[in-house]
Amino acid sequence: MKKFLQFFIGIVFLGLANxxxxxxxxxxxxxxxxxxxxxxxxxxxxxxxIVFDLxxxxxxxxxxxxxxxxxxxxxxxELAKPGTCQTPANPNPNQPTAPxxxxxxxxxGNLDAAILNIGFNNDLGTGGYLSYITSxxxxxxxxxxxxxxxxxxxxxxSPVAGFSRYTMRDVVVFTGAPCGSPLTIKADLWSSQASxxxxxxCWRCNFTYLFNEPQITGLVNCTSxxxxxxxxxxxxxxxxxxxxxxxxxxxxxxxxxxxxTQLAPDASGSFSGLTNSSTQFxxxxxxxxNNVGSESTKALWVEAVxxxxxxxxxxxxxxxxxxxCNTLPVSLRSFNAVQRGGKASLTWETSLETDNDGFEVQRxxxxxxxxxxxxxxxKAPGGNGGAYNYSFDDQLSLPKGVAYxxxxxxxxxxxxxxxxxxxxxxxxxxxxVAVYPNPSRGATNVAIPEGAGIMDVSLDDYSGKSxxxxxxxxxxxxxxTNLKPGIYMLRINFRESGEQxxxxxxxx
Length: 508
Description:
By secondary structure, the chain is mainly β. It has one helix and 33 strands. It has four domains: 201 residues; 93 residues, Immunoglobulin-like, CATH 2.60.40; 104 residues, Immunoglobulin-like; 76 residues, Immunoglobulin-like (Sandwich), CATH 2.60.40. Helices cover 1% and strands 49% of the residues.
């Protein structure tokens, strides 16, 4: 699980994907604010992931999002084509074509005040990855400053039938406002099926979002059993109401998501009447049910979902609560995974064991979740001793793709820690790497599948300056050390398959 910067605030704006017209329906958006950088007090820098759904048809060749501070929102499409933006009374308006938005002071011009202009070519890409539109490629107005996320746009299946989901990662937005001030964002999303970008064929208008609300702080109490305290605060003068949930940080890499399990049953509840004149405290919430013991050294995610006031997109803030409680002092000297006869064979060695109960062997297939497939008892008498060797053979025939393995070491009191990750690639499945921990404190690891072959690797800072390069290497684990705080881009080119992978690394 990624441990974001101290000021990490994840804000998720959710909406159902609704059809606009039969030609090119656009779903509402999910925006995840991953990092708030207040270095410039008057112009808050925000790093976001943008996710939304589009209908699967030829009407969405090019897709664009333009976002504004609410006070600067021009309402271009409503001005250009009155009555064509959705309202509760008119959820599916007729949308004739319109000229694309540009800069300027006339009725068409409205992008001068935009804090975000981003788009992609829905036809240009391979393997589920699509290309961003650059400023020079925005032919309606080549002077428009276009934003580019890291890597490429990811295209995957949507939970909504007939739609695809598009994800743009690590998009940097300068809000033009202080980080701590209340801020409402309004946005338009439109698409075109014209190769020349000469016309907008459909659009959705006036998305309204509360920005960075509410704020969450908290701590884990190192009591027995563990408890957690957190508090909610806001800059909003309008009272906020909603619900909260607490989740266990289950993985050493990734972001807040499906692999995190909710604490139960007491780790959920509601809040109401939250304004800038009040802070609400939630104290001594226990780790309950199956989260006793082995979960007690993990970090937690607190999620606060704002359901009122009405009129905004549902707004969810998530915050990582770090856990400084003691972990098990067992030293794992090595851990390896190899393929034998199409199956995984694991070996590991300890150099010191103290109060060690044993080891859970965990497996993850593709983009699924880790599952425990075996438990191997400690060989040390009473769990205390020196160096021991262990092995385990997975009887599953490896499916096509990548399988990850890790060891979860558990002490006699139920506390636990994880090994490094080992990856095995079988068949001709797509190469996938795992970067962990990410964020890190200056050192991180890259797990590369066995059999990936010769590769060229580069590590660049966020400005594009080369930090480290490795050419013609064939390794299964790459260690990146002595990294200064900042954002880095790791690019790997696999010579044999021609595949390229880009990963963003955050160092605190």
